[in-house]
UniProtKB/TrEMBL annotation:
It comes from the Bacteria. It comes from Blautia obeum A2-162. Residues 16-64 form the Helix-turn-helix domain. The lineage of its organism: Bacteria, Bacillati, Bacillota, Clostridia, Lachnospirales. Gene3D superfamilies: 3.90.105.50. This is Excisionase from transposon Tn916.
Length: 64
């Protein structure tokens, strides 16, 4: 039951970590970081690098 609540909370996130993005897409961290350098879906907050989930989804949609 706790897992379902956690999963639902993850769906509500606006920003996700590089690791979470890799888990969702199946891409390696190296590939993800290369994509982040060339696109605008990356957000820096202090030392953390996060992915704007909506911008990343739009970028994926444009690729197909």
């Amino acid at each position: 039951m706790i897992h379902k609540k956690t999963q639902a909370a993850d769906n509500d996130k606006i920003l996700i970590s590089v690791k979470e993005t890799c888990e969702l897409t199946g891409l390696s961290e190296k590939t993800m970081r290369t994509l982040m350098k060339n696109n605008t879906f990356m957000v820096r907050i202090g030392r953390r690098t996060l992915i704007d989930k909506k911008k990343f989804q739009k970028w994926i949609d444009r690729q197909s």
